[in-house]
Design a protein that fits this description.
The complex is a heterodimer of chains A (about 325) and B (about 290). With about 325 residues, chain A is an all-alpha fold. Chain A is built from 17 helices and no strands. Chain B has one domain: MetI-like fold. The two termini of chain B are about 30 Å apart. The chains are: A mainly alpha (about 325), B mainly alpha (about 290). Chains A and B meet through α1, α2, α3, α6 and α7 of A and α1, α4, α5, α6 and α12 of B.
């Protein structure tokens, strides 16, 4: 019986017996072939002189051009700016968005008033559900130089002497976009920590209380170690998506929406550059090459962080 | 909790926590509230500044203006269409596939799962994808909003671990009765998967409602612009006009800003109405997805 199991006729029979679930899955596989794996093969145009009018066959027929697109990108006078912005913004956003939800979760956990706790939690998720476009619009109302509410209030309080245009000054972009990323993602990621706090054994707190530990000591020695696992998991996830913008996952959207002619030198990243070249200027093959550079750095980061995570916690994404 | 006398440390921790949380509450809520106020305030009056907590010159004109403008109405319908149709497609397609992938007897399971997980991390990037859509003749069609979004890879993984947790005995009895898999899926699996389905529906719907990138990438026709896209292009136009400081823009920009505020309120309304009620589901959902047990 068991030897027969390996025969191909048997495999076919087994497949036929489960043909329905095979069909369910194959629907998805076909979808992936069309929308993921075919475009993945299309990446070869990064190495070719490709014209979009030649369609899909053209992807394979076009001649290789000896890395001309990559050479052009690396020697672009804006290359260093783009690389710096991409890496700095990603790292800065990770540094800002990673600890914020941990702190928020611990603060929420310290609230004894149930109603207040619920209100804070519900409200803190809200920014996660609105689009970056809406954040841009809110920011325009609040942070523009002319009649921006933020400037009005801070000047009224005497904290600012002159109105600052947060949306267009190049010096403000890094900090400004990191702050918005924190605003948008903090409440959402706190969910994970709050859930893992609830799984901490209450007896630990009681025992610590009997031993005379105060609330700050309980936070440091019970709550914090109790959510360490969740912290590591989230850290792995966000390092994996580092170049995408970390926990907010919105480097592209932020740079695209908040970038303008004035703050271009600090807001433009590799991805927005690729987008503008590709779809706006029609340089498809070159833009693919630029995009590919970003993906390579990204994959490298995921592999490294997964390895590191496995070493630290014995568990990785894959 | 027993009534224990508060120590001074307790007081300090309480005050600090409440203080910080109240500030967070304020900076999270106030921008939305301000937009609501602005949308009910007269446009010219708003530009004089100083409106913070209550409309100074109350008016419904902004809403009349918004709902009277064909371009906004059009975008509203596009967004409604993609939210309803797109979420329905995602819900059916994604849950069906993840159910298939969750079956323990599935042959080639490892290979299939690899295909899905690999796609999550590696993609061809924007341009080859664009070329693909172009050759599928999806560019500049409303279907470009709902067909490529049918499969949500993250929720395939969430779905697999959710469906795996359904007791096998539940499915076994139906299978012995000779029921077809699709019938088992609809009659038995779906009814016990409400938390997963609700989370998926919420995320698909919110994603569709908020979407603007695909409208920027793959669509040129003005009548196919989504609400979010139109908000972006309008605010950029207003900001551009304001920085030019033309005389005529100073006259027209007040109503632009209040119309913007109105559009923002309209686009926020469904989200604010829906998400608090689905809270317990998505809290479960995100836990299944991100924390391995």
């Amino acid at each position: 019986m068991s030897t027969e199991l390996h025969k191909s006729g048997n495999l076919l029979r087994r497949l036929l017996r489960q043909k329905e679930i095979q069909i369910f899955v194959l629907l998805g596989v076909v979808f992936l072939l069309i929308f993921n794996y075919m475009p993945l093969m299309g990446v070869v145009i990064a190495f070719k002189d490709y014209s979009i009018t030649s369609g899909i066959p053209g992807i394979f027929k076009a001649p290789f051009n000896n890395f001309a697109h990559f050479k052009e990108f690396f020697s672009d006078r804006r290359f260093m700016d783009l690389l710096r912005n991409t890496v700095c913004l990603s790292v800065l956003k990770l540094i800002c968005t990673f600890p914020a939800p941990i702190i928020l979760a611990i603060l929420i956990n310290e609230v004894r008033n149930k109603a207040f706790k619920r209100i804070v939690q519900t409200v803190s998720y809200l920014p996660n559900f609105i689009s970056w476009v809406l954040v841009l619009n809110l920011a325009t109302f609040f942070f523009s130089e002319n009649k921006g509410v933020f400037n009005e209030i801070f000047m009224g309080l005497g904290l600012l002497k002159q109105p600052v245009n947060w949306l267009t000054s190049p010096g403000a972009f890094y900090g400004f976009s990191s702050a918005l990323a924190v605003w948008k993602t903090m409440g959402w990621w706190a969910i994970i920590y709050l859930a893992s706090i609830t799984s901490i054994d209450p007896a630990l707190y009681e025992a610590a209380g009997i031993d005379g530990a105060g609330r700050i000591q309980k936070i440091l020695h019970i709550t914090f170690p109790g959510i360490k696992g969740a912290i590591i998991t989230v850290l792995i996830l966000s390092i994996g998506g580092l170049l995408g913008g970390g926990m907010g996952g919105a480097n592209f959207e932020q740079s695209y929406l908040f970038g303008n002619v004035m703050n271009n030198s600090t807001s433009e990243i590799i991805q927005t550059h690729a987008f503008k070249l590709g779809l706006a200027e029609g340089r498809f093959a070159y833009a693919t090459a630029v995009d590919l550079c970003q993906s390579c750095i990204s994959i490298l980061l995921i592999l490294v962080s997964n390895k590191a995570a496995k070493m630290i916690s014995g568990d990785g994404i894959f | 909790m027993n009534k224990v006398k508060k120590t001074s440390e307790d007081w300090i921790v309480d005050i600090v926590t409440w203080g910080i949380l109240l500030i967070i509450l304020f900076i999270t809520l106030y921008p939305f509230y301000y937009i609501l106020v602005a949308s009910f305030n007269d446009g010219n009056d708003l530009t004089r500044g100083g409106v913070y907590f209550w409309p100074r010159k109350f008016t419904l004109d902004n809403y009349m203006l918004f709902f009277g403008k064909q371009s906004w109405i059009n975008s509203l319908w596009v967004s409604i269409f993609r939210t309803v149709v797109g979420s329905a497609l995602t819900l059916v397609f994604t849950s069906l596939i993840s159910y298939g992938l969750s079956r323990p007897e599935l042959i080639f399971k490892k290979f299939y799962r690899f295909l899905f997980i690999f796609s999550m991390y590696v993609s061809g990037g924007l341009i080859p994808y664009y070329v693909m859509l172009r050759n599928l003749h999806l560019l500049n069609k409303i279907w470009v909003y709902v067909i490529p979004t049918m499969l949500n890879l993250f929720f395939v993984l969430v779905g697999i671990s959710f469906f795996e947790s359904i007791p096998a005995s539940l499915l076994e009895s139906a299978r012995l009765d000779g029921a077809a898999e699709i019938v088992i899926f609809i009659r038995i699996v779906l009814p016990v998967s409400v938390p997963f389905l609700a989370t998926l529906a919420l995320f698909a719907a919110v994603g569709q409602w908020n979407a603007w990138l695909d409208s920027a990438y793959y669509v040129n026709a003005d009548h196919l612009r989504t609400l979010a896209y139109r908000m972006m292009s309008e605010i950029n136009r207003a900001a551009g006009a304001a920085s030019n400081q033309n005389v005529d823009t100073l006259v027209t920009s007040p109503t632009v800003m209040t119309t913007m505020a109105t559009a923002m309120c309209v686009s926020m309304l469904p989200i604010i109405c829906v998400y608090p009620f689905l809270q317990r589901y998505f809290v479960q959902g995100i836990m299944i997805g991100s924390v391995k047990e």
